[in-house]
Design a protein that fits this description.
DNA Methylase, Chain A, domain 2, 2 domains, Rossmann fold, three-stranded mixed β-sheet, alpha/beta
Length: 371
């Protein structure tokens, strides 16, 4: 891998999944933007020692490079950068598919990324790579028009692109989480035809590039890999009789109505959970841990476990199985992530986060293939 230092910006930064991944390949963050005040607290607490310059303030006490509202970004004030990272929200474009391209993105948050990139191109410092993430549904959003406009806009800016849906369960975390990734490169600077995505990690830790061997050849995981000790989790996170009855009754009603929605139950030997969401703090219904062997109602994940499910190294109260502390995601070669917000906010933040091991592998390939 190249030892040259690269710079990146982190838009829609959340709690810093992109930052962790790009830092792992030696890149330096020179600008970040995040509007949620609690996510900003988590971001600064975890990255101020890694990139202190990112949190510098002027004489008025205002951040110079840690922006709050992406709509207020002045491109001329953003340091030049090599890679633009962004997990932008999926929004409908008002005239999507009619005119195509840049004008169709106005009024959307994607437009903010495009505008910043366009201004950097005009200033003769085009970003080499755009690293974008979104929900899987973006592929078919508004009958495919949204993605078509995004890709047409990238072409208009002078970028080639590749996109793919990847699943975190193939990258060493026990979570079934599919996300769409778009990698774009500035064609005048990078002469490639396509980007070869990593599809998973094999049992030896090597990158898998062939989809055909995913189901049998990936790094094996169990939900218990993320567990804190049961002495901590059982008393504090077991759901009440009332909540458990509510979950069961709701699932039965939905089954009769043909909706199929309800709680999802897993145990320590399950190979993965369902996708954790930002609403997990409400009742934890999408991921409940079975405790019937103890004669107890199910429990929710702890905030620490929710973070580990996304690949963050969080020490918490330790591990139910101490050997899990030494796996590729949680050993001390990874930075420790500290939870500095309330339980509710921690669940919300981890549910919104990217899965760090996926982003790491893509970042490695960006450096190898495009930089």
């Amino acid at each position: 891998m190249s030892k040259k230092k690269y710079t990146f910006i982190d838009l829609f930064a959340g709690i810093g999944g992109f930052h962790t991944a790009l830092h792992s390949v030696g890149a330096k963050c020179v600008f970040a933007s995040e509007w949620d005040k609690n996510a900003r607290l988590s971001y600064e607490a975890n990255y101020i020692n890694i990139e202190p310059n990112l949190f510098r303030k002027n004489k008025k006490g205002e951040y110079l490079y840690f922006n709050e509202d992406i709509n207020d970004i002045n491109p001329s004030k953003v340091p030049n950068f090599d890679i633009c990272c962004g997990g932008f929200p999926c929004q409908p474009f008002s005239v999507a598919g009619l005119k195509r391209g840049f004008d169709d993105t106005r009024g959307t948050l994607f437009f903010n990324i495009v505008n910043l990139v366009r201004e950097k191109i005009r200033a003769n410092y085009p970003p080499k790579v755009l690293f974008l993430e979104n929900v899987r549904g973006l592929k078919n959003h508004d009958k495919g028009k949204t993605l078509s406009v995004i890709l047409a806009t990238l072409e208009e800016l002078g970028y080639g692109y590749s996109y793919e849906v990847l699943n975190a369960k193939y990258f060493g975390v026990p979570q079934n989480r599919e996300r769409l990734f778009i990698i774009a490169w500035y064609k005048k600077l990078i002469d490639v035809e396509s980007f070869k995505f990593p599809y998973g990690i094999d049992k030896n830790g090597s990158t898998i590039y062939d989809k055909k061997i995913l189901k049998g050849g990936t790094l094996q995981t169990k939900v218990s890999d993320i567990f804190e000790p049961s002495s901590i989790t059982t008393p504090a996170f077991t759901i009440s009789d009332k909540m458990w009855e509510g979950h069961k009754n709701r699932k039965e009603r939905n089954r009769k109505n043909g909706k199929g929605f309800g709680y999802s139950l897993f145990n320590g030997d399950s190979t993965y959970t369902s996708t954790i969401s930002a609403r997990y703090w409400k009742d934890g219904s999408e991921i409940l841990i079975d405790q019937s062997d103890k004669g107890l109602n199910p429990r929710t994940l702890t905030p620490v476990e929710a973070g580990r499910l996304q690949g963050y190294r969080i020490l918490g109260n330790g591990w139910e199985h101490p050997e899990c502390a030494n796996n590729q995601n949680y050993n001390d070669s990874n930075p420790e992530f500290k939870i500095v917000v309330s339980k509710k906010e921690a669940y919300h933040q981890f549910g919104n986060s990217v899965a760090v091991p996926v982003i790491k592998r893509i970042a490695e390939e960006i450096i190898k293939q495009l930089m």
